From TrEMBL:
The chain crosses the membrane at residues 6-28, 35-53, 65-86, 344-366, 372-389, 401-419. Keywords: Membrane, Transmembrane, Transmembrane helix. It comes from Halomicronema hongdechloris C2206. InterPro entries: cNMP-bd_CS (IPR018488), cNMP-bd_dom (IPR000595), cNMP-bd_dom_sf (IPR018490), Env_Response_Regulators (IPR050397), RmlC-like_jellyroll (IPR014710). This is cAMP protein kinase regulatory chain.
Length: 425
């Protein structure tokens, strides 16, 4: 006859075994978004049912309301803090939502670094924050020595330059027309017309600049035609050299900079090469640890149920179904990051085994502490599961499947309730 810890281990392994199914699917096939969304929504519904009827109700009946309050707050907080820590160390790619959060912060950091260097270029303030955000990824840092010819009179105009530091002179023939310094720009007409340069620009001192290539800019224009009007505003402002122009109120650089950073979007186009670079910053171990953090609360609840001699079919079903889309998206991300199929499968086998051991730990906890603390521990697991649902599964399901996931979620909840209420539940 099987002992209680062994039963908990087997149930934990069973609930987590779908991680391997999702991993294999992610390695060999990428299903349609609507299909993945339906599974994710159904799993969300079953887990919501499990939280309500298999965690909250029993804890309230045995220990009262306060263990639920304490546990759910602790569980949600711990999950959020730990997952944020894991994502910052390479685990972000295991979920589309965490990937988007990482991409958002990555773009904010990149934009902040560039704005620290070019925010003093007043002419750029003619661009709206969204226009500036579209241009920032195209800017290439450039360092040149004194005497470098940056633009040659009579050659095709193929780039715009922003001066971060240093000085340059504008010459037409043998005549010096002007001296340019930090905070100024030149070559902007080339981005709109591509006409020949009307003057030569020569570096007088070592210079730090940003270059905006016409080819890159034209590619961005096909996706964001409004940038042309933004550049036109820059040209118009360049021509306003009257007293009236000087009286125009200029927005403070700090306020403009903050508005640009606040306009960062995650749905700006990203190339396959850029995604590969981001994916390389992820690490399989961090992805595995992040997935375990998602699954350990569920495994502990399985162990708690086994400890009281209760085979909870509804909760096992909820865990089994919800693990499939998570492992699927994580495996796709690891594959894009260059992890081999063998290593991906090995990592998920490890996740399954650790989930089983976590279920055994849940059973052991039942016998070494008071009922009140067990109730708190169950509530902590419930809070962590609810945090996972609200931050990843449900938002991702809706984004991928739209309003149709409503019915999948309802179906999952009702099936979970039916299984819980049935004699086998």
């Amino acid at each position: 006859m099987l002992t209680v810890p062994v039963i908990a281990l087997l149930q934990g392994l069973l609930g987590a075994s779908s991680l391997l199914i999702g991993a294999i699917v992610g390695i060999i096939w990428q299903p349609a978004r609507t299909f993945t969304a339906a599974i994710m929504a159904f799993g969300s519904g079953t887990l919501l049912s499990a939280i309500a009827f298999d965690i909250t109700a029993p804890v309230f009946a045995s220990s009262g309301f306060w263990p639920l309050v304490v546990g759910f707050i602790l569980g949600g907080t711990l999950f959020t803090v730990i997952i944020q820590y894991i994502d910052e160390r390479g685990g972000f790619i295991r979920h589309p939502s965490s990937s988007r959060r990482f991409l958002y912060h990555h773009r904010q950091e990149a934009a902040s670094e560039v704005l620290d260097r070019i925010g003093h270029i007043e002419m750029l303030h003619s661009l709206t924050p969204s226009e500036m955000q579209a241009i920032i990824p195209l800017l290439k840092p450039l360092s040149v020595g004194a005497g470098t010819i940056l633009c040659q009179e009579g050659t095709a105009g193929d780039a715009l330059f922003l001066i971060v530091s240093g000085e340059a002179e504008i010459r037409k023939g043998n005549q010096r027309l002007a001296i340019l310094g930090a905070g100024e720009m030149f070559g902007e007409m080339a981005l709109l017309t591509g006409e020949e340069r009307s003057a030569t620009v020569l570096a007088l001192t070592p210079m730090e600049l940003y270059e905006l290539d016409k080819i890159d800019f034209d590619g961005m224009l096909t996706r964001s035609p409004h940038l042309a009007s933004g550049l036109s505003r820059i040209l118009a402002r360049r021509l306003r050299e009257t007293t009236q122009a000087k009286l125009i109120r200029i927005e403070s650089p700090d306020h403009w900079r903050q508005r640009v950073l606040d306009s960062v979007e995650v749905d700006l186009p990203i190339s396959e090469h850029q995604f590969q670079q981001l994916a390389q910053r992820s690490t399989p171990v961090a992805i595995l640890v992040g997935t375990l953090i998602d699954n350990i609360p569920e495994a502990l609840v399985i162990g708690f149920n086994a400890g009281i001699g209760h085979l909870n079919s509804a909760f096992l079903m909820a865990v089994f179904i919800s693990n499939i889309p998570e492992a699927l998206s994580s495996s796709i991300g690891m594959k894009q990051a260059g992890t081999t199929a063998r290593r991906i499968l090995a990592l998920w086998v490890g996740a399954v085994l650790l989930s089983g051991l976590s279920a055994m730990a849940g059973t052991a906890l039942m016998h070494i502490t008071s009922d009140w603390l067990v109730g708190v521990a169950q509530a902590i697991a419930g809070g962590a599961i609810l945090a996972m649902l609200s931050s990843t599964m449900m938002p991702e399901a809706y984004e991928m499947g739209g309003g149709s996931v409503t019915f999948s979620t309802i179906a999952g909840f009702l099936v979970g309730f039916w299984v819980t209420s049935s004699p086998l539940g």
